[in-house]
């Protein structure tokens, strides 16, 4: 079968995202494309997702708790930078609710929203159109079938988005040379570069902050790049202080959820 040489970029809609290679994903041979404008790397149209999402959280994810702990500490630090205390935060695609529960334990009013995954740990704190100051989206962007459509929705909910996705190295690694392609679970279908994120920041008129090619912020206000960097890098240290700005919601949540029953 002839290889389709170009696809429309799912980020900037440029018509000439160029074929770069193909490789094994689950038991399919999948083609990859790279956009010359925003440098986004994408798979061909992902027809295998139903199989990839047999379980919303993939079975080879052994680091899920550790990453959630790290994200909650970094988010707590970010809240200090953005001066967020009592305002509501939404964890978009919140999965089992681990992050939501951890952040409520620290003391933030965090809600969750997830179309695909049953929430196990933060029942009673689902999003229902509340006013949102900060939206978090950890390990979401690389799964998006239509990044622009989802970002439109996210920015209609909140002006600030704190998110993680591992930026793809330059030059683009071969499929067997980079674990983040996710060959065994098939759920990662789009890979961003700094240039892709800059394109998005410009499109939505936001400020962009990135730390270590993994944790990023689109914000409506400017903050110190230096503080963002050190609050993310030395997150455990700063967390000791930033968590003291708020008080745990464990007890109040216990009362609140109990009263609703
Ligand atoms: Zn593009």
TrEMBL record:
Protein name (Swiss-Prot/TrEMBL): Class I SAM-dependent methyltransferase
GO MF term list: methyltransferase activity
Species name: Acinetobacter tianfuensis
Keywords carried by this UniProt record: Methyltransferase, Transferase
Biological processes annotated in GO: methylation
One Pfam short name: Methyltransf_23
Transmembrane segments: none
Residue ranges the record marks as coiled coil: none
